[in-house]
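Section 5.1 Outputs to date
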Amino acid sequence: MDHRAKPIRMALACLLATAATSTLAAPSRSNRTAPPDSPLYKVSWQPVAARVEDLLQRMTLEEKVAQMIGIWEKKGGIQDVSGNFSAAKASQAFPDGFGQITRPSDKRGVTVSNNAAGVAAGAVNRTARETADYVNAAQRWAVEKTRLGIPMIMHEEALHGYVARGATSFPQSIALASSWDPALIERVFGVAAREMRARGANLALAPVVDVARDPRWGRIEETYGEDPVLVSEMGLAAIRGFQGATLPLKPDKVMVTLKHMTGHGQPENGTNVGPANISERTLRENFFPPFERAVKELPVQAVMASYNEIDGIPSHANKWLLDDVLRREWGYQGSVVSDYFAIKELNTRHKLYGTDMAAAGRRALDAGVDMELPDAEGWSTLAQMVRSGQVPQEQVDKAVRRILTMKFQMGLFEHPYTDARTA
């Protein structure tokens, strides 16, 4: 091992020791069981696939589409002026429920001192206890106040530790990679997972397994470097730390989101989200390996498409990338999630369909995207598009099936709440 890695490993070991002593135990799971007359999807011992199909056939089209979206800038529609979750407002704004809350630890949607509603500027984000209470209130609404009681995904950023008030921040990814120590990386993200799950989060928008091949690119620090082998090994270690190696998810783990597929790390002129004018050979030799190894070796359930285009085709519109390669060639069974505002950016950045957001939404869904983050824009009229015949019902069902599978594998139907005392 390179002697230069030793100081980094020693510093990380100290930080891990401190985090371990300050991180409380993972929330205990309840002994709640389904009554004898419960529908099949609520019976915990039934196979996940059977539970998914039972629930899917009970859902209306609007309920299905609702599972495909997150809420972030529209959080004002689900909380009061103080930022507390409001069941009454949520039922009015989202009568069919919705799939997930984007970053429950932040106060997006709170009206702040400059009277700018819908932004976080000037707002102090939630403490650990406040986040846990917010998550529990939101899940209680989803489970008890919506027709089918489908709990929600709560996703958070966690690039080098849980990005939240009072959480442990570790060195950036490029520094973690320079430790050359996968076992240490696994411990790092094990701490992040425990901190996230204690507050009620269950999905991390990490790890980044982009291979960085242009030093001018401004996001080098988010990556594990330029070598596909090192990036693969560090990415696998991070996944094991966050999620473990098997499903269903353990109570002190969170699921991962592989980011960003792909070509993100070699943009034209080094400009972030710039075009990646690279060949298929370069993709397969340099950029695909970390993603391919991850989805083949570990039970990854979420992959995020990248903002950039490859040879003129944006990743969120690239069916060859997201369907032919990821799903058919590699056998990936999980969900594809959009990067923030990326479906909208098919028009605003990539100029595909002018101002026609519905067309951008149709293209992304057809390419293989299952969830739109952080809010519904391209899919705000998806139910109408299905009813008018512009979008096949089968495409929606496929996407929702993958989302529900993730939720069952998370154990959310049995254990939707966190013990706020441990946050």
